[in-house]
Amino acid sequence: MSELISLNGVNKKYKNGVTAIYDLNLKIQKGEFVFIIGGSGSGKSTLIKMLYREEKPTKGEIFVGGINVARLRNSRVYKLRRKLGIVFQDYRLLPKLTVYENVAFALESIGAKSSEIRVKTLRALELVGLKGKIRNYPDELSGGEQQRVAIARAIVNNPKLILCDEPTGNLDSKMSLEIVKVLEDINNTTGTTVIMATHDEKIVNKFKKRVISIKEGRIFKDTEEGKYDNEAI
Question: What is the value of pTM for the model shown?
Answer without folding.
Answer: 0.94
